[in-house]
Design goal:
This protein is α/β, with parallel strands linked by helices and about 325 residues long. It has helices spanning about 10-25, 40-50, 55-75, 95-105, 115-130, 140-155, 175-190, 205-215, 220-235, 295-305; strands at about 5, 30, 80-85, 105-115, 135, 135-140, 165, 195-200, 245-250, 255-265, 270, 275-280, 285-295, 310-315, 320-330. It is about 40% helix and about 25% strand. Helix 2 (about 40-50) runs antiparallel to helix 9 and helix 3 (about 55-75) packs parallel to helix 4. Bound molecules: S-adenosylmethionine (SAM). S-adenosylmethionine binds near residues 35, 46, 113 and 114.
């Protein structure tokens, strides 16, 4: 079997359609889906963000996985296959894979990500690094990727049927409340009773700590956000100038979320050649590029239980900044 599969994600038509939809809106309603932040350059910039001292989620989640990795697998009696949603460079996943390889003779790992280049590199590296690990990278959107992972495991006679699904990096925070429930409910439908989900989510905390994490001093988050405009230039022939926009990330205390925006510095128009369209921006008008919701343990319990999961255990760091929850699929 091929160790890497790509499914229609590079379809430029999807990107084009979403840009037309998102940038045609007026009155501060312009919006681009956060998945488009992650092209090859965007994913590399995200790796740099994770190294910044202000970005506590990465190192806190890493610490939790190091501390509780072995304990997490004590919940699982049978061998499992690992499926990961939005796997990125799988740096943190290596901690779990190493622990699992102490328990299982062989591990099948199916990472799913829209960022094709980083996934290809990671799949290649993992298959070289771990001798008893079989990695099959699936470059696809979550839902298509989950379908593909189910097909692969149905066709492969040696892969354990029991699934251990990872959704780390607080990516669940990019969904609205109802979307998160719909997403987890459809994920649950692809799982069997007794399969496990490990969900990393960020907790509500001091506003300064939150805002600093999305406004690092060296400007990697700003570059990551602004790269979205350069991506439109590269892939759709846009004529954006990054210098006409600035990065703005702040904590919305009413909705308990960090909002990431690109703010137009002047009133101007930008032509996007391959769309044959121009988009107009007022001075100080925003393009909303990401929400990152921050949860309480009760709120996440409500979301996962409404989606057909039951919490086995929540693992937190000493300062209660972040939580990695182990859930099992309910009947
Ligand atoms: C916040 S990063 C987390 C990366 C990694 N899991 C970690 O914890 O460091 C989100 C990841 O999800 C991927 N992603 C975003 N939207 C996606 C989608 N709709 N389908 C599949 N992957 C997606 C991005 O490419 C990126 O690698």
């Amino acid at each position: 079997m091929q160790p890497f599969i790509s499914r229609d994600i590079s379809l430029i038509e999807h990107f084009a359609r979403d840009i037309i939809d998102g940038l045609s809106k007026e009155n501060n309603k312009k919006w681009i889906k956060p998945r488009y932040l992650y092209d090859e350059l965007g994913s590399s910039l995200f790796e740099r963000i994770c190294e910044q001292p202000e970005y506590y989620p990465f190192r806190t989640e890493t610490g939790i996985l190091k501390r509780y990795g072995q304990r997490i697998f004590k919940f699982m009696d049978d061998d499992v296959s690992v499926v990961e949603l939005g796997s990125g460079n799988s740096v943190k996943t290596r901690i779990l894979l190493s622990s699992l390889l102490e328990k299982q003779k062989h591990v099948f790992y199916l990472p799913i990500d829209v960022s094709q280049e980083i996934l290809l590199r990671t799949t290649h590296d993992l298959n070289r690094e771990f001798t008893r690990l079989n990695t099959f990278g699936i470059a696809a959107d979550y839902s298509e990727g989950i379908r593909e992972a189910c097909n692969i495991s149905a066709k492969n006679g040696t892969m354990p049927e029991r699934k251990f699904v990872l959704f780390l990096g607080s990516t669940i925070g990019n969904f609205e409340y109802q979307e998160a429930i719909e997403f987890l409910t459809s994920l649950r439908a692809s799982m069997r009773e007794g399969d496990f989900l490990l969900l990393g989510f960020d907790l509500q905390k001091d506003v300064k700590l939150l805002e600093d994490a999305y406004n690092d001093r060296l400007g990697f988050t700003a570059a990551f956000n602004l790269n979205l405009l350069s991506r439109i230039n590269r892939e759709l022939g846009g004529e954006f100038r990054e210098t006409d926009f600035r990065h703005l990330a702040f904590y919305n205390t009413e909705y308990h979320r960090i909002e990431m925006n690109l703010i137009s510095k002047t009133t101007h128009e930008v032509h996007v050649n391959r769309l044959g369209r121009s988009f107009s921006f007022l001075k100080n008008e925003r393009i909303h590029t990401e929400n990152s919701y921050k949860f309480t343990l009760e709120k996440m319990k409500d979301i996962v239980e409404r989606s057909g999961f039951q919490i086995a255990e929540n693992f937190l760091d000493h300062n209660n900044l972040y939580c990695v929850g182990l859930m099992f699929a309910n009947h």
